[in-house]
Give the backbone structure.
Amino acid sequence: MKKVPLFFLVALALIGCGKSNQGELVGVKQKKFYPQKPHGMALIPGGSYIMGSSDEDIVASNDNPTQTVTLRSFWMDETEITNAEYMQFVEWVKDSIIRTELAKAALLNGGYFSVSEFPTSDEEFETNPILEYLPSYDMDALENQDEDEKSGYQQYLEENFSDVVSNYYETEDAPDNEFNYHLPLNKDVDIIKDREDYPDVDYARVFEETIYLPEKEWFNGEPAINTKLLKYRFTSVDLNDAIKNPDSDRSSFARHEVYEIYPDTTVWIKDFKYSYNEPMHNDYFWHQAYATYPVVGITWNQARAFANWRTKTRNDYLRSRKKRKYTTGKFRLPTESEWEYAARGGLESAIYPWGGPYLTDDRGCFMANFKPRRGDYAADMSLYTVEADSYEPNDYGLYNMSGNVSEWTNSTYSKDTYDFVSSVNPNYSNITDEQKVIRGGSWKDVAYYLRVATRDYEYADSARSYLGFRLVRDYLGANDSQQQ
C-alpha cells in the first residue's frame, strides 16, 4: 500500500471542515464589517432627548410641544454643503450630458444600430474624429469573439443597445437623459472645449447648437452653457404606497424624477427688491473666492438629487474596487427630529447649539451669523453668508447649526406633527405636500429662528439666498463603538 504523507491528510481534513457545515445552522459566511467614517461627516450617537421647545412660545406658534423621542445613530455633514462641493455635482452632470450628446451625434453620423458595426480601425477615427465618443464597448473583444462564444450578458447588452438606438432614430429625440442611463459613456477621451480646437464640424455642431446658448446671449464674449440642459434623473420608491398595496407590481411604486440642478443665482436679486446685490448674483456660486461658502439657491428636490448622486458616486467607486459588499449607506436630507437632536450637541433643553441663553460669548463676540439688530446685518461682522466652518462647532463637531443659512430637512411641515408622529425615529414625510420643514435660521434672520426647537417651512420648489442644506447618512449596524 502506498503511503500518504500525514501533512497532506491533515490539509484535506482542514479543507473538508472549512467547506462543510456538518448539518448545523452556521449562517452564510461573510466578512466582518467595520464602519468607516465618511469624509467630512461626524457621528451622531443614537439616544433619547426632549424634542420641542422647553422655553416660552413667544410667537404662539403652538407647533413644537415637548416630547421624549429616541433616534438611531447616524452620520451628519460637519458643515453645510459648500459651493465647491455642489460644483462637483454640477460638473459631473455637465460632463455626462456633453458625452451623451457627442455619443448621440456619433451614432447618427455612422448610422449604427449594433455594437458590432462600430468602427475599429485608426483610419476611420482619424477620418471622422467624433466617432471616438461612441459608447465605450470593448471593441477588440467583440471583434475577436465569435457570436456563439459571447456570454449571455454580452448578447443582452448588444440587443438592448440596438433597441435604444432604434427608439432614438424613430422619435428623433430621446427623453431627458435617456442615453445617460443606457449607454456606457466613453470617459477615456478628453472633451475639447476650445472652439479653435474642435476636431470636426459634427463636434462643433454639438457644442454650438446644443451645449452652448446662442452667441447673442453670451456676455463678455464668453461661451455660456445652456444650464437648462443640466438635468439629473434618478428613481425613488414610495414605500408607504408599497405597504398599502403589497400585491401591486413593484414598478408602480417607483417615481422617476428629473430635475434641473444648476443653482438659481438670481435669488440674490429676487429675495431683496430695490437692493443692489448684483455682485452676489454674478460671483457667489462659481467664483473661487466663495468656494467654501454654503451653496444657496437650491430647491428641496435639487438637494434630494444631490444626495442621490452622492450615494451613487460613492457606490460606483466601491464597485470599481470590487467591494460590492461594502456599498455605502444612503445619503439623504435629515429628518427634522434628527436635525434638532444633532443641533443640540448632546445638551439637554438647550436653546441654542452652544447652550444659551446668550447670543455672545464672554468676550462679547456673537456665536452665530444672523441679524442681531434691526437693520444691522453686519453687527456680527458679516453681511451675507460666511465660510461653512466659521464660528465654533457644537459638541458633536457640527458648524453653523444655527445661523449662516437655514437648512432643508426631509420632513413635511404640519402644525400638528408632534401630536401624531412616533416616539422612535419620528418623521412625517408626504412627498406630495409642498411645505417642507427648514431649520436653523440664517444670516438674514432674527435670533428666534436660531433656536434649535424653532420650526419653519418653505415650499419645495423655493430657492432662496438664505437657504442651503447638509446631508446625513444612515449608520450601518447598531454599535457605534465600532467607529474607525
